[in-house]
Design a protein that fits this description.
Belongs to the mTERF family. With 256 residues, the chain is mostly helical. It is built from 14 helices and no strands.
Length: 256
């Protein structure tokens, strides 16, 4: 308790979130802390790691060291980036190389994600419980296996989003309210990274009011200022109103 308190870690709160800590020998905790500290984590950074993944304190240094070796030798992480990778995803430290990290790496590479070192946060994910179900979701709504894997290869962050809380409501709005073709998602899977309430709906509704239709990337990626400027320019041009039969044509303005 005194040792962890010296680093600013509340031992009593830690027991509530991770009871096994109470039975771990002090020497094992110190060994693990010293190993992680060797990568130059500050005390503040280490406290953050423990708050996000308290299991690290009940992991032996002999279990954590292979994770570092795997990230450097197999996942292709540069030594100078190792600290950043752990800070972003502390749970990597408590994952088994044999049963989690290596199988996930092999799966990501098998669908064409070559630079996994840029997406190491995915390595702690279960292939069976998280990655495959997300691929299957897009196949079930009509995309081929090749089209689906191309989407994830183009935008690996897609694996991070919830099917129920992200995919389903955004896809429903895309089809039912926006009336757009699913093939647009093949080219711009980043659609799912934008807030439905704060970005997608307001911008789509603004376009409807002006009788304008932008490609997805223009609709969502541009800044608020750029979006309003494009909208004003298009509206003040000879664009047909939304009530006109011409508005059904897939018209896209020339980029400014």
């Amino acid at each position: 308790m005194l040792y962890l308190d010296s680093m600013g870690i509340d031992f009593l709160s830690l027991i509530n979130t991770h009871p096994p800590i109470i039975s771990v020998p002090l020497a094992d905790i110190q060994s693990t802390v010293n190993l992680i500290a060797s990568i130059n984590f500050t005390t503040l950074e280490f406290r953050r790691i423990v708050s996000m993944c308290p299991e690290v304190l009940t992991s032996r240094a002999s279990d954590v060291l292979p994770v570092f070796t795997f990230l450097l030798r197999e996942a292709g992480v540069n030594g100078s980036d190792l600290k950043r990778v752990i800070n972003r995803r502390p749970r990597l430290l408590v994952c088994s190389v044999k049963t989690r990290l290596r199988p996930t790496l092999n799966f990501l590479q098998s669908i064409g994600i070559a630079e996994v070192n840029k997406h190491t946060y995915l390595l702690s994910c279960s292939v069976e419980d998280k990655l495959i179900p997300r691929i299957e979701y897009f196949k079930n709504i009509g995309f081929s296996h090749k089209e689906t894997t191309n989407m994830f290869r183009r935008f690996p962050q897609l694996f991070n989003y919830s099917v129920k809380d992200n995919y389903e409501p955004k896809l429903n709005y895309f089809v039912m309210e926006m009336g757009r073709d699913l093939k647009e998602l093949k080219e711009f899977p980043q659609y799912f990274s934008f807030s439905l309430e704060n970005r997608i709906k307001p911008r789509h509704q603004s376009c409807v009011e002006k009788g304008v239709c932008f490609p997805l990337n223009v609709l969502l990626k541009t800044s608020d200022h750029q979006f309003r400027r494009r909208l004003d320019v298009c509206f003040n041009s000879s664009m047909p109103l939304s009530t006109s039969s011409l508005s059904r044509v897939n018209w896209y303005p020339h980029p400014l």
